[in-house]
Amino acid sequence: MRARVVRQAASYLLAYPDQALLDRVPVIRAALGEQRVATLDGFLDHVERTPLEVLERQYVEVFDLSRRHALYLSYWTDGDTRRRGEVLGRFKAAYRASGFLVDTSGELPDYLPMVLEYAAVADPEGGEALLREYRPSLELLRIGLEEDGTPYAAVVAAVCATLPGASPKDRAAVQALVGGPPMETVGLEPYLVNGDPRLLPLAGGR
């Protein structure tokens, strides 16, 4: 239950901020408090004390203007290759199999807030499997957010903490988590990490 509460909270906190989010903060805080989760208190404080227009601007700067903070899980592993279409289809198939109606009309199905809500509400077991499969994507996102000093790092770190084992300390350690055959890299050479096509964004690039 604790993991599900954290994932549901993170699904709200990683989405584009609006008045509905501000209204929801007391409920999120209470739910996390019941589960003795304090790691998101600082971020919730940040949301409550920051004007909405500033939150909106910060969100765009963090997530929309930097590849280092992509919220699309398969971006980190497949980029814009032809294979990614197949991967996105797998996400949709998982949603359909759960029996819940998941609205993917406005976002790609690997959008992290969507995956987190699916894992929290619709299919905890299936959602857990997706999050474990894309653990390297989550960890690379976390590392990028931490390096750039954004409060959103705490939210992604909280999500990573719901998965088994400690988070890798750096990108080299994340690469050790990656398995499977190399993926298509046509046109993606500038974005490879140490020649590994499975971890696309450059360690220090934008």
TrEMBL record:
InterPro entries: DMSO/NO3_reduct_chaperone (IPR020945), NO3_reductase_chaperone_NarJ (IPR003765), TorD-like_sf (IPR036411). One of its GO terms (biological process) is chaperone-mediated protein complex assembly. Keywords: Nitrate assimilation. It comes from the Bacteria. GO terms for molecular function: metallochaperone activity; unfolded protein binding. It holds the Pfam family Nitrate_red_del. This is Nitrate reductase molybdenum cofactor assembly chaperone. It comes from Nocardioides agri. The lineage of its organism: Bacteria, Bacillati, Actinomycetota, Actinomycetes, Propionibacteriales. The gene is narJ.
